[in-house]
Amino acid sequence: MTSIEEEVISYVALTGDLDTVVGQAGGITTDHFLDPETRKVFSSILAFKADFGEPPTPEVIHRDHPNFPFSEDSSGPIEYLLRELHEQRRRTIIDLGMGAVGEALDRGGSEAALPLLRMMLAQATTAAVGSREVDYAATGAQRLDVYRQARDNPGELLGIPTGFKFLDAATLGIQPQQMIVLTGLAKSCKTTVMLGMTRSAYDYGAKPLLVSFEMPYQEIARRLDGFLARVNPKKLQTGQISAKEWRQLEAALTDPLGEQPYIVTEDRAGAMTIAGLQTKIDQLSPSVIFVDGAYFLFDEISRESQTPIALTNISRGLKRLALNNDIPVVVTTQSLSHKVGAKGLTVNSLGYTSAWGQDADLVVGMEATDEDFIYRMKVLASRNAPPQEHLISISWEPPQFEEAEVEADLPY
Ligand SMILES: Nc1ncnc2c1ncn2[C@@H]1O[C@H](COP(=O)(O)OP(=O)(O)OP(=O)(O)O)[C@@H](O)[C@H]1O
């Protein structure tokens, strides 16, 4: 079996892409290679690139290091491999540091141990994924490229479409590192809207992972199937389905939905904490994660759930998940009816903690209106759009979303 270090070297040699590994995003140096043999190979790749402007081919590496085991099979995408390398290095720093701190403590007491402990902590923190520094002063040209791209394609979506034109126009899509909070009172169609977003993400080519603390898988699948086949999900349960609807259902479900997986986890116990969600992300590599009923998550720090401190830590933890994994995190959480005043749902309606409003890049509220099936979708808070609202109809016979006309210029 090849190691992660060998897989990274194989990736560079086979694709010629060294920039992803050693560039700002990858942040890998020879220090990340703990095995002396692979470290030697990686050093020689860097030296080759410095001399000739490009990384060596597998043939060149093979000539200098005949025993190096190239592997075309990789245990995950390059982003995963790089994160594993960072993790491996941080573990080693902590492991060695703890040993040294323990020895110092035995010999010279806390006074001797403390400086070592601080040093180990500083090293482990700077080696952390996501703590890579950027030289703002030197990178204007790179940002200019990004701005030029935006100027040449005005209004183009920057992320995954939500399935709602109103939201897409306001946000330009759900982007990596963002945390999006969908809120509302009980039964305000939060889950239904989130399921709509998961489908939109899937159709766009994203690989969603859905964790629901609100609904069992069968019910989620029925609701998704209902919207897909345009048959009321209730009928799929009762069996009272017409011949025409059955044909629609068959046409919708006989073939796989698409090429990539759409994963729903039933392992709620395993996904109950931020660390549990991180493990799921590590195992399943989704490109976007949806958590339905995030207020049910258990906070490992306070060892509580649904208390103000627990919810604050969970909100912070979810945002960290988005940042560290470079994926969008979309969650639903309930608002409190006694926090809904004359203005209706606001960002303060989330209750218990102000963390959701502070940590989220976008807070979307769903509010029932006096009219059946008509809901107000509100941008309650957004880092890059003003508060605004829009009427959405969610009907069930057949199931469909309909939006009032969107006046803004749409990106598509
Ligand atoms: N098959 C159906 N036909 C008609 N109405 C339905 C159907 N399924 C759900 N609804 C309505 O949709 C609303 C619930 O939607 P949803 O579960 O998305 O809300 P929610 O805000 O996520 O609820 P919760 O408080 O459980 O988190 C309810 O008003 C319910 O009556």
UniProtKB/TrEMBL annotation:
Query: Could you tell me the superkingdom of the organism this chain comes from?
Result: Bacteria
Gene3D superfamilies from the UniProt entry: P-loop containing nucleotide triphosphate hydrolases
Domain SF4 helicase intervals: 153-410
InterPro entries linked to this entry:
DNA_helicase_DnaB-like_C, P-loop_NTPase
Positions the record marks as coiled coil are none
Name of the molecule in the record: DnaB-like helicase C-terminal domain-containing protein
